[in-house]
Amino acid sequence: MSDEIPLVPTIPPGLRDAAQRGTLVPFVGAGVSILGGCPSWAKLADDALGACIKAEKFNHGQHEQIRHLTPRMKLSIARAIEAEHGLKIDYAKLIQSDDYSSNVVGRRVYRSLGKLGKTFVTTNYDSWLDTEIVDTEVSVEDAAPVADSTAATPRARRRIIDVNDFTAANLAQDNCVFLHLHGSVYESPGMIMTTRDYIQRYANDRRSDDPTRENRTLTFLEFLFQRRTVLFVGYGLEDLEILEYVVQKARQQSSSGPPQARHFMLQGFFAHQYELMRSMTQYYAQCDIELLPFRRDQRDWAQLIEVLEHFGNIMPAKSALALQKQADMEDLLD
């Protein structure tokens, strides 16, 4: 391994092969939507509490006292204030502005990301992935606000929000099925935000003979991680509800033979974080995830756009092969 973190990671053979076989599924996190102009978790939480202050159901002194809490805890408090006072926070407005889709940098990153898969899974609430961006755009320098070179010709993707639709059959469709694991701005009351929400969504990983008690999210994730190659984009250690599940499944698989699929994670580091990158590589390897580091020194997180553009040009995704679909069906029937 070189002692320098590359600007663009080398594409591993397993990742390229998965794209060619149609088994690559990009798993998209908040780090991507932030590039598209959406707020970070911390800003969303503070903005939600700010809405409570504006409605005079909370005040700045109270906000200062909980300033140190995690975003999830702050969102839990905001939701509780909503319930107590009958307040309705416009989360859709907080997450994406009316003109969000004209964000040039966002269009660039999601256009490139769209080349990497026919199916997408995300824990984001925003609607950036709900349409396929297929127009050709001029290059932009960092976040320079320049116009598109051609008119937009978006193509809608199927949006899946209902947990009852988190199925292997939907994942197998090749019409760009799009799964919002934590809900969408289009159905804000059902968004997974609070600690209670997360506990309920990831309650256990046991299948049940009683369909009403089955945790469909975890059943779906089990199939995804066993039968597909996942590329995590825009995730970090704070996203433990996903990573802990991957760790658990990796341990179960390691006791009965080699894992059925390798997974990958794009992650940015500064040059001076080389040793941290090495440590994180070893950590993720225990989860059956190969870390693909890139260097942030020149463009910070915007370097991810260059990485996605390179990956999309080198290994554009194809539809799943008929043999793969047959194997999926046989696995479901076992």
What's the rounded overall pLDDT mean?
83
Major sheet description = 7 strands, parallel
Q: Work out the number of β strands.
A: 9
Class by alpha and beta content: alpha/beta
Distance between the termini: 42 Å
Instruction: Note the quaternary state here.
Output: single chain
Give the structure's gist in a few sentences.
The chain is an alpha/beta fold. It contains 14 helices and 9 strands.
List the helices and strands and how they pair.
Elements: H1 13-21, E1 24-28, H2 30-35, H3 41-54, H4 60-65, H5 71-85, H6 91-95, H7 104-114, E2 120-122, E3 131-132, E4 155-156, E5 159-160, H8 168-172, E6 178-180, H9 195-201, H10 216-227, E7 229-233, H11 240-254, E8 263-269, H12 274-285, E9 289-295, H13 303-314, H14 322-333
Parallel strand pairs: 1-2, 1-7, 2-6, 5-6, 7-8, 8-9
Antiparallel strand pairs: 3-4
Helix pairs in contact: 3-5, 7-13
